[in-house]
Structure formats: C-alpha cells, structure tokens
Amino acid sequence: SLQVEVKYGKDRLSDKQKTTAAQITRAGGVYIVAKSFDHFIEQFQKAFALADNELFVLRCPIEEEEATLSF
After folding, report:
1. Which of 18, 61, 65, 67 is most buried, judged by most C-beta within 10 A?
2. Are the C-beta atoms of residues 25 and 53 closer than 8 Å to each other?
3. Residues 6 or more apart whose Cβ sits within 8 Å of residue 1
4. How far apart are CA 60 and CA 15, in angstroms?
5. Comparison of pLDDT for 38 and 60, the residue scoring more
6. What is the C-alpha to C-alpha distance for residues 44 and 38, in angstroms, rounded to an integer?
7. Comparing 71 with 6, which gets the higher pLDDT?
C-alpha cells in the first residue's frame, strides 16, 4: 500500500501519523511525507526504484484500462 502525507511549511507529523507510518512500513507498505510535488516525485521514484523520467504504468482492474504516467 502507499500512503502520502502532505505537509506545508513547518507542519510536522502528529504522534498518530507517526504510529500509522510505522504500521504501514512494518507491513511492507510505503509512507511518503511530501513537502512539495517535486519532493513527492523524488520520494516515489526512490521508494519504487524508478529512474528519473522513467514511465510508471498504472493498471485499473475495474475498468481494465491502462494509463501511463510520466514523472
């Protein structure tokens, strides 16, 4: 699973958010704290071992359609 927490300025994770982050990562998920869109992309690429400008394919099982996202 992937969870993204967006923080702005001096915002910090609350104790509850830190607990949730620990639970997600212990279960094998990815928890990203993003300060900007560029920071999110950087962390996403790092978490999923994607190279710069590598395409990420998103599959939608309900509609069985495929979309290609370029970061």
Report:
1. 18
2. no
3. 24, 27, 29, 30
4. 34
5. 38
6. 10
7. 6
